[in-house]
Amino acid sequence: MAAPNVQQAVPFLGVTDITTSLAFYVDGLGFTMTSHWSPEGRIRWCWLQLGGAALMLQEYWRDGRPAGAPEGTLGQGVSICFMCADALAIYHAVTARGIQAAKPFVGNGAWDVALRDPDGYHLHFESPTDVPEDTVYSG
User: Fold this and answer.
1) Residues spanned by the domain of 54
2) I need a surface site. Which of 10, 75, 97, 139 has the fewest CB within 10 A?
3) DSSP 16
């Protein structure tokens, strides 16, 4: 049997202000920009990496300027789960950098650290645990 051809799924998020999004993802969450496209000297698309996870961001653009985002909240109904060795360490790191995150809780056998990016996309950093369901982190 041939080896699987598909090797990775990478969420591709449209954003309204890539400068704000990069501050959130790179400075706040610790992602590294590994590739980008910068026509006219302004980043319009980028590939971000954090450990073994990746995201692509692209700013909505029309008529030579940021524009053209769909109506409403971009992230409505979109959740991205990042599986981690220690989600609580992520919680401490990002909140120390000024990122607002919900209080971690245990759901489905995992610590869940939930937050939203500047465009409303739901992000969850999760790690397995044997702590009882519905426990809320007190640290």
Assistant:
1) 12-66+73-128
2) 139
3) S
**b/e map of 44-79 (b: 16 or more CB within 10 Å)?**
bbbbbebeebbbebbbbbeeeebeebeeeebbeeee
Structure tokens at 80: 């991205």
Asked if the structure places residue 1 within a domain, the reply is no
Q: What is the CATH number of the domain that holds 18?
A: 3.10.180.10
Euclidean distance between CA atoms 6 and 119, whole angstroms: 29
Q: How would you write the pLDDT of the chain (139 residues) with one tens digit per residue?
A: 788 888 899 999 999 999 999 999 999 999 999 999 999 899 999 999 999 999 999 999 988 888 889 888 888 889 999 999 999 999 999 999 999 999 999 999 999 999 999 999 999 999 999 999 999 999 8
